[in-house]
Amino acid sequence: MCGIVGYIGRREAADAVVEGLKMLEYRGYDSFGLSTLDTHLCTRKTKGRISECDPAFLSLSGNLGIGHTRWATHGVPDIKNAHPHSDCTGRIAIVHNGIIENYASLKKELTDRGHRFLSDTDSEVIAHLIEEHYTDDLLKAVEEVLPCLTGSYAILAIAEGNRRLIAARKNSPLVIGLGDGEFIASSDVTPIMTYTKNVIFMEDGDIAALSDDGVIIKNTGTEVVRDQVYIDWDCNATRKGGFENYMLKEIYEQPEAFYRSVHSVEEEGLPEVLMKAPSLSVLACGTSYHAALVFRYLAGAWCDLPVRVELASEARYFSPAPGEVVLAATQSGETADTITALRRAQELNCPTLAITNVLGSSVTRVADHTIYMQAGPEISVAATKSYIAQLAVFFSIADQLSGRKHRDALMRVHQVIEQVLLLDGDDSEKLCSKASSIFFVGRGSFYPVALEGALKMKEITYIHAEGYAAGELKHGPFSLLSEETPVVAICPEGESHDGMISSLKEMKARGAPIIGVGTEGDQDAEDIVDLFIPIPHTDLCGNILGITVVLQCLAYYTAKLLGRDIDKPRNLAKSVTVE
Amino acid sequence: MQAVILAGGEGSRLRPLTYSRPKALIPIANRPIIGHVIDALISNNIRDITVVVGYRKEQVIRYLNTLEIPVNVVVQEKQLSTANALLCARHEVKGRFLLLPGDNYISAASIAKIKDVDRGILFAEHPEPTHYGVVSMRDGYVRCIREKPENSLGYNVSTGVFMTSTDIFDDLEDQDLPEIVNERIRDGMKVRAVHAEEWWDAAYLWNLLRMNTAVLKSIRPGIAGRVSREAVISGKVSIGKGTTIGPNSTIIGPVIIGEDCTIGPNTCILPDTSIGSRVRIGPFTSLGNALIMDDVTIGSHSSCIDIVVGEGTELADHNSTVTGEHTFEEDGKIVRGDFGAIIGDRAKSAPFTVFRHCIAGNSVSIEEGRTITGVLPDQTVVR
Fold first, then answer.
1. B120-143, pLDDT tens digit by residue?
2. Mean pLDDT across the stretch A264-274?
3. pLDDT at residue B5 is higher than 70
4. How many CB atoms lie within 10 A of CB A66?
5. How far is CA B309 from CA A310, A428, A501, B259, B287, in A?
6. A2, A350, A432, A491: which is the annotated catalytic residue?
7. Residue A75: its pLDDT value, please?
8. What pLDDT is attached to residue B103?
9. What's the CA gap between A432 and B187, in Å, rounded?
10. C-beta atoms of A422 and B20 within 8 A
11. Which residue in A238, A247, A252, A520 has the most chain B C-beta atoms within 10 A of its own C-beta, making it the best mutation to test that interface?
12. Chain A contact for B311 (CB, 8 A cutoff)
């Protein structure tokens, strides 16, 4: 998982590339680098984060350049493995996102032919291969090299003696922005928005040449025309505004993200194949998996639809029933595990659907149908508004399958999020910040809510947190409860309330401090718990959303008390494009 | 030219509406007050804008992020005086700059009159000058500003819009701005008194309706939603996209309706009404001189006149308002206001509720057939 940006135009390319890389940092941030072409090629690269780098280090002249922000897959994160990579002559520079699967054999052949390798990466072979084919036409050289490569790639290349930026894509995202006399290629649209809103999403096998005069795209040797798409994302959506960090900004954008997503799925309707599905399988990872679990409960309750939910990374060990409708939920649309599992389902002749936030992302090219959520760009590594938007899509699917009985309620339920955002959880945050282990428990549809709450907590605070079904505690985990292990108990009014109250009593008897999240005015719960976070009276969906947001805020403010780097937790990247 | 907008204060006189947002975010003609202020600056080509936020700052920042131009945000951690708020912005400005309150409406024409003045204050006439700084002047220059005097002979009050410069930061302590200006004038500084073209403030909740009426006069009419062929629309009316207007409805402008609203058949929307986004109005309901925020539902057969309704509130069928005089005591003085009802955010009423010139708090819940008078505190349940 890496981010790449290339620029050709009249501005200083280094500035454009650096600004772009900063916006792509969510894709990886263990090392970065850039190359620009003036008369000669200049390259700078280093370990660490671009946002923390001295601007002087990054000032290179020239108005053609490429850059890369890396998330290590082959070779440890250090300077020699950072991109851009060069050939033996130093005349060619490339950046690559993806994995070259046959790089070992290619590398051996190249070394035998006398090429010297400077890095441990798979990507460097591309530079040396281009070197063998390049005379003065870089486009031709790259075209000749691509058939040698297997695996996934988005490549940008520049070379001395050819004022063009060459971009190629296969199974890794690449977008081209069409500005006024300037062109930008990037892993996603956010860096492009500064210059233009007109973009082209490259297709697999496309190779593009960006020059001062325009863009030519070729596929398997012939020139092709790709549709221009106008992106009406507000530029500000990718700026932090006045918020301390992106996660808080995105938490506050959730009411709108939820409404927009529900509204859009309700208006668009569902594909026929989904409406008629007798049963469903959902494949997902991480937070998306939790959203899918919520859906399982809701689909059962609202429309008696059996739903199987599988972790995408484990799905290869099971097979969906032939012909079963398979849904893949991935916020970025690039999650490798999910895409692989979806491809496998396709091979078994299952109709496939993707739920994603990113237009033109890889999963949309694999699935038969795509349902888009409308969360807008999400920069913080910890998913918040994209999770809420995913819930919105799942809620709306359940609603439409039930004959739109819940439509009106869904269109208003974002108000619960607004209300929850006004709450103050000071004491609970202090309690959590002192703990070394926290349990999150819930029953029924609040069990996945507890799982998600625990995930958010571990992701950004680094505190060990576990989500459990409340009834499961007594089958083992009870032995871990003590006065030092706070339990966050989800106990709103509704079906699971009475069961939770008895679970609460059991936990209380073990001396664990309990933070209850429940309905305002619930005296039974308030009497048992040590701290109570009240949410307003609402329906099932409102409870799920409201409590999810309460737990996000709990994790956020706890992480803030602990001084964590909230937007970029250690060892994590936004979306995981390796299996 | 730079501008600093102060939007850190709550505006506690406008509770319950300022529980979930500061006064600067209260929507007037479907746009937060601070949005109108920024519009006025932009139409004078003033784009270097710093906003001082404090109370419920996340809400303000979230709104500012939706604007077309990027604005600079500074946080005032504790809401002390206006001078303190201004101090927070001292590193953001250089030389001459315009200082504005974020919670008063000011027109672009007013800003045009002051932006080229070296130092000045915008003043306006106000029928209740004792709530404001009363400006006395001579030959077009300010002599002094008396802050909230017991009685006042003049009706000229300060709008809080100052053209000033960074030297105001010297020796600036925790005091109010008018005091500082007075001091400087005594020391010989010349401050022009400039008459504002249009300026509105809401000292009390019911003033919001007057402010709404004034601002609605200048809306740009246009219909983006779906309007039934059997509906009648006259006057200046703006209807947002995704909104549907049912058959036999009558809308008489000035009226603004936001996006994704459902206005039922046979409704009647009378002048001086603004309706936010995602609002649903049931059949046979009549609205007039009303400020309805986002996500509100009003049932059928209701009559809501002279009313302010907060975000997410749901009024059931057969609700009505009775306009009359609302009085209460403040600092030993009787305050009077004429209106139908002011209802906070996310309140709920059952059918046949009558609101008699009352103020109902946030999240109140009212059971069937009650008549509400006086002031209902937040979360009250009326059985």
1. 999 999 988 888 899 999 889 999
2. 92
3. yes
4. 30
5. 46, 33, 37, 17, 11
6. A2
7. 66
8. 95
9. 56
10. yes
11. A252
12. yes
Residue with tokens 């920042």: B61
Q: Which of B16, B368, B6, B354 is nearest to B205 (CA)?
A: B16
Residues of B in contact with A248 (CB under 8 A): 58
pLDDT digits (tens, 9 = 90+) for A184-212: 999 888 888 888 888 898 888 999 999 99
Q: What is the pLDDT of residue A72?
A: 67
Q: What is the pTM of this model?
A: 0.81
Backbone φ and ψ for B168, nearest 5 degrees, come out as -65, -20
Phi, psi (deg, nearest 5) at residue B132? -125, -175
ipTM given for this complex: 0.88
Q: Does B380 touch chain A (CB under 8 A)?
A: no
More confident residue, A396 or B146: A396
- Please tell me if residue B259 touches chain A, with a CB cutoff of 8 Å: no
Least confident of A187-196, A337-346, A406-415, B174-183: B174-183
Within 13 Å and on the Cβ side, how many CA atoms surround B30? 25
Q: What is the mean pLDDT of residues A44-59?
A: 81
Strand order in the sheet with A487-491: A464-469, A437-442, A487-491, A514-519, A531-535
- Closest chain A residue to the Cα of B54, Cα to Cα: A242
User: B363 in contact with A at a CB cutoff of 8 Å?
Assistant: yes
What is the sign, positive or negative, of the torsion defined by CA atoms of A248, A254, A256, A261?
positive
| Each residue's pLDDT tens digit, A446-489 | 999 999 999 999 999 999 999 999 988 888 887 888 888 999 99
Mean pLDDT, rounded, for A329-342: 89
Q: Do A259 and B75 touch (CB under 8 A)?
A: no
Q: Given an 8 Å threshold on Cβ–Cβ distance, is A422 in contact with B346?
A: no
- Contact criterion met (CB below 8 Å) for B69 and B49: yes
Q: What number is the average pLDDT over the span B256-283?
A: 97
CA distance A533 to A525: 11
Structure tokens at A285: 């990872």
Helix (H) or strand (E) holding A310: strand A307-311
Q: Report the alpha-carbon distance of residue B306 to residue A166 in Å, rounded.
A: 64
A191-200, A557-566, B308-317, range with the lowest pLDDT = A191-200
Closest to B209 in 3D by CA, of B343, B102, B345, B308:
B308
Amino acid, res. B377: P
Those residues whose C-beta lies under 8 Å from the C-beta of residue B344, and which sit 6 or more positions away, are: B16, B17, B19, B310, B313, B360, B361, B362, B363, B364, B378
Q: Which of A252, A253, A263 sits opposite B260 (nearest CB)?
A: A263
- State the helix-helix crossing angle for A446-461 and A540-561, rounded to 10 degrees: 20
Residues, chain B: 383
Question: Which tokens go with A245?
Answer: 């960090």
A355 close to A329: Cβ distance less than 8 angstroms: yes
Chain A residue with the nearest C-alpha to that of B313? A415
A206-247 confidence digits (pLDDT tens): 999 999 989 999 998 899 998 887 776 655 445 566 788 889
Q: Tell me the nearest-neighbour CA distance from B145 into chain A, angstroms.
A: 34
Classify burial at A509, counting beta carbons within 10 Å of its beta carbon; exposed 0-12, middle 13-18, buried 19 or more. Answer: exposed
A241 vs B73, B260, B363: nearest CB: B73
Interchain CB distance below 8 Å, B57 and A242: yes
B53 to A242: CB separation less than 8 angstroms, yes or no:
yes
pLDDT of B339-359, one tens digit each?
999 999 999 999 999 999 999
Tokens of A182: 């300037």
